[in-house]
Write a structure and sequence with these properties.
Blueprint: E1 5-6, E2 19-26, H1 51-64, E3 70-73, H2 75-80, H3 82-90, E4 94-97, H4 110-128, E5 134-135, H5 148-155, E6 160-161, E7 182-183, E8 191-192, E9 197-200, E10 203-206, H6 211-215, H7 218-231, E11 237-240, H8 257-264, H9 267-280, E12 282-284, H10 286-291
Parallel strand pairs: 2-3, 2-11, 2-12, 3-4, 5-6, 6-8
Antiparallel strand pairs: 1-7, 9-10
Helix pairs in contact: 4-5
């Protein structure tokens, strides 16, 4: 990176409760990267899609708990469920891009990536009727090997990215990246907002959702978010997927044991834990928290 300029902390009034960022990566169960060796892209159109029903459950949960969120949505999904996208926008949530077809940024060259992020942005804006300024790379696939992607996002009209997870993981991660929002190429460029980690004993703990949220006891996840709010005085950034609230989803055959465990662990507990998280903390959209949009 040319620079790692920390972003200014979100402004708050004295005594105001910290608002954390709630985000949802809108994709279906058969599109996750871990299933790529087992489920061909050619088969996607023939598979049972469950994303629309799952999003309805999520929107109802958010409305009940007064949560506003950012929905990083695949163009592939938006193209097939435009009314779902419009319901997300009508409910007051932010629409953001997850690319078109869940291709990892690290698997694309500059021209392919540029086409992906631009076409997805145009498609989402046409369907949702609002400007799309945020992007999250599938599987947090921006790292040291493809930092040019951040410049491409700026040139394509995005204002922020949430594509770097500052932990070590076998599928993603950039452990030496800053823990909180920063400008990789200086304050005139794109704002990168990493998934939240909590520090304990000099080690970074994954505190921002995903499979860790389903695996770990809820009390530990709550403690980590609270620690970030109180000790670091920073908003936490949480993410999850619609398929995580769907324990009845189809189960493809032939999965390796690790992928099967990671994908299906505690799906039946996720919705309840998400509701508890919604009650225990204040949540809002990414653009409002980090870009001070009204």
């Amino acid at each position: 990176m040319k620079m790692q300029t920390p972003a200014a902390r979100p402004q708050r009034q004295p005594g105001e409760r910290i608002r954390n960022a709630m985000t949802c990566d809108v994709e279906d169960y058969f599109q996750v990267s871990a299933f790529a060796p087992y489920i061909s892209r050619d088969s996607w159109p023939t598979r049972e899609c469950r994303v629309e029903a799952n999003i309805e459950r999520i929107l109802a949960l958010f409305e009940k708990n007064d949560v506003k969120a950012t929905f990083f949505t695949l163009g592939w999904i938006a193209e097939r469920y435009p009314q779902m996208v419009r319901r997300i926008v009508a409910a007051g949530h932010e629409l953001a891009s997850h690319g078109y077809g869940h291709q990892r940024a690290s698997d694309q060259n500059r021209a392919e990536f540029d086409n992906d992020i631009r076409s997805a942005k145009a498609l989402l804006e046409d369907i949702g009727g609002q400007q799309v300024i945020g992007y999250r790379a599938p599987s947090f696939s921006i790292g040291h090997g493809n930092l040019w992607a951040l410049e491409a996002l700026t040139e394509a009209g995005y204002r922020y990215s949430s594509s770097i997870y500052p932990i070590a993981h076998d599928h993603y991660g950039m452990p030496d990246a800053p823990r909180f929002a920063f400008y990789p190429n200086g304050p005139d460029g794109l704002l990168e907002i990493p998934i939240t980690t909590a520090m304990l004993g000099g080690r970074k703990l994954p505190a921002g959702g995903g499979g860790y949220f389903r695996l770990l006891p809820y009390a530990l996840s709550r403690w980590m978010v609270k620690r970030v709010n109180e000790l670091d005085a920073e908003p936490a950034l949480f993410y999850f997927h619609p398929w995580e609230v769907d324990p009845g989803q189809p189960r493809p055959q032939g999965l390796d044991a690790k992928s099967r465990f990671r994908h299906y662990i505690n799906l039946d507990r996720m919705e309840g834990r998400l509701a508890a998280l919604a009650r225990d903390f204040a949540w809002d959209r990414m653009d409002r928290i980090f870009l001070n949009k009204p």
